[in-house]
Amino acid sequence: MPLLDIQDLHLEFGTGADAVRAVDGLSLTIAEGETLGLVGESGCGKSVTALSITRLVPAPPARYTSGRILLDGKDVLKMEQSKLRHIRGKMVSYIFQEPGSSLNPVFRVGSQIKESLQLHRPEMATDSEVIRLLKLVGIPAPELRIKDYPHQMSGGMQQRIMIAMALASEPRLLVADEPTTALDVTIQAQILDLLRDLKQRLRMSILLITHNLGIVGDIADRVAVMYAGQVVELAPARDLLQRPLHPYTQALMNSVPKLGREAGRLQSIPGTVPAVGAFPSGCRFHPRCPKAQPDCSKKVPELIEVEPSRFVRCPYWSHGKL
Amino acid sequence: MSLLKVNNLKVYFPVKHGLFSRVKAHVKAVDGVSLHIEPGETLGLVGESGCGKTTLGRSIIRLIEPTSGTVEFDGEQITELSGGELRSSRRKFQMIFQDPYSSLNPRMTVGQIIGEAIDIHHLAANSVAKEARVQELLKAVGLDPIYAQRYPHEFSGGQRQRIGIARALAVEPKLIVCDEPVSALDVSVQAQIINLLKDLQVQKGLAYLFIAHDLAVVEHISQRVMVMYLGKVVELADSQKVCREPKHPYSQALISAVPVVDPDSKRQRIILPGDVPSPIDPPTGCVFHPRCPVAEARCKVESPALREITPGHWAACHLAK
User: The pTM is what?
Assistant: First the structure.
């Protein structure tokens, strides 16, 4: 049984005629110890998906209209509030893009980590455990740094504190929502290195959300590519990066310049990412798709397994026409 | 003759403290940078946040007053110009900003935004000519001319960035300072803007100072690349040389840290310890030595000068060969 099993999740904002569907029929699984990369551009629904794992998207305004989110076999969408508190921050921990705005500026970082310990592992809420966690995330001189306030630390250090807080509860699933986007490349490399190391040492599952395909290749076992609220391709990371099948994934890879490659003209994707609530009919990528066929605007494609463990939402792939 | 020549440019910001705002120290944002750009050339400028790349770009066109040093543009000393003269020579160099959301006035229509510069420099004989020019510019950046009547909030990020480019082009500049023009955009839209900038360069013979933190983008668009660290230039060479055979240990680490899409690439990743030090109190000697994997004793004492290691390849490192 996978640790996380999202089945046919539909999430809407607003009501009646104004309702917009941010997540539309999303299915994903994450096995114990596996790292899944969730890739997509802004507005594709990847962050909402991540938050809905522990029902953190406030309802209302959101409505989980259908689907199931099974965490270790239990449906999160049917759980009582009191049960959710045992999951949020405990079984599932989060780290976010902006470490500076996720930390409380008026408390010392040591006491913020201790708070997490008091909530989830009260018997371990000691300075020595905090120091052990700080060492785990690679903070030099942790005995001194526990007295620091967040503003005294750099962005990379703050993100390490966030990771230490997330690890305090010994989570089984770590959700990292664009954890390195706000950081410089050399610091990004440090944080990715840390995540890779922690994943091996602690055997936890990671859901890594990013818009950068390079990061996915670095750390993920499997990758799901999202576009306009739907998963359009799901495959083992290596296969997907070597041979993307969905036209959107292909276009996305061709539109990024690669370091050290001959500088030809970049293949840009025409148009812009559709806004939530204004998704095109049929296949949502068809207005921008270089391989669109006449009936792509009418028929809604299904996510189909075209090769073992490779899923693509494009009928022309499953028909073998492209 | 070079279009732009910057010589030993320094920008220091005072750090004030206490009752009478005594100047306690200086942030050396740009510390003795020299560079030149030829007509029609793109010089890429990379570095991490806080290395002074934006300050350098802005001080070249005097949006920030340089503390010392000279900027010569098209044979004219920009640093010595005053008010009116500076305004009229700004026609020749323009800027495109990072955030297309905050760099367009939300209360002006696109036509007014682009037309304002045409008015200031008296480039159109009458309002009909101005309108025609605005429409021509919108077409040049790939937008429908009817958009001139609309307001910025009606556009997506990529479209706004096109408006920003049209505004810069309105006065027919020779140089455009592009400060992170694609980093706020979605990946699929970035390529559109990069291609547009390249096309415009060919059509109009523009020179760019292209500032970005994304090395792959910079390599793609630039002929030469300059790497900055803590206000100083650490490496300068043809873009392919910098990206394929970097000489400075900082550039080597920077390039190795870029995540690659190819799962088979066997690159050795150099992970730099620590963070960029504060530019208020930079390290002695070579500013990079506390994080440098190959630092020697003399690196702590002697500050390395930028020297030509191989023809056309400059690096500021005692050990570069």
Answer: 0.84
